[in-house]
Amino acid sequence: MTRGIVVFLGPSCDRRTAREILEADYRPPARRGDVARAVEAGARIIGLIDGVFFQESAVAHREILAALRAGVRVVGASSMGALRAAELDSLGMEGVGEIYRAYREGRLVSDDEVALVFDPETFVPLSDPLVNIRATLQRALECGAIDADAARGLLDAAKGLYFPERTYDAVIAAATGTVDPEALARFAAFAGEHAVDQKRKDAILALERIRDLADGVEPAGSTISPGAL
Questions:
Q1: CA 61 – CA 190 distance, rounded (Å)
Q2: Is 76 helix (H, G, I), strand (E, B) or coil?
Q3: What is the chain's Cα-based Rg?
Q4: 3-class SS shares of the chain: helix, strand, coil, % to 5
Q5: What is this structure's pTM?
Q6: What are phi and psi of 225, to 5 degrees?
Q7: Proportion of the chain above pLDDT 90, given as a percent
Q8: Is 193 exposed, middle or buried (0-12, 13-18, 19+ CB in 10 A)?
Q9: Which of the following CATH numbers is that of domain 5-109+199-214: 3.40.50, 2.60.40, 3.40.1130, 1.10.10?
């Protein structure tokens, strides 16, 4: 095990980028029991970024709590990690990133927001998570590519799609007839060039945080204590 660090990582960030930031024992998206097994194997820091949803048993709260009681630092972000951190930060799990904050503050509620489908061998995403679509719509709105009415219409269209079917092309198709065609064309061009991958951004922040923990570095003035982000 690399320096006692285990990171559960799948589609949120490619392994090459991850290893440039942090040397760790990288494992596939976490299933129920995986965190407990990492603790049993001697992990001292666990990064929970990606995990399974819906059809498979997700990481249980109790195994994260058991890890924390054993003195293991558990950092969550981006996907399943953001969800669990928002639920358990008051009990010692650390949350990192915008998606974690949005769940903690109640701006996001459903697991569906971070769900996507991906290639099980390469972890390459095959759909776009709603959190990324939201971030891209917000960026397009800020840049003047679309107006607020178009942004609302596109977001409603995205929400109406089942998560494995969400892609930018599918969202634009679903919004046809309710959003101005010129606005759809502008958004299609914008998303093609400037799509925001918020999950990747948050995963990178988590890896950087874990690297600092491993090096004994705390942020100036305070630690990132439970619930502080």
A1: 39
A2: strand
A3: 18
A4: 50, 10, 40
A5: 0.92
A6: -80, 165
A7: 90
A8: exposed
A9: 3.40.50
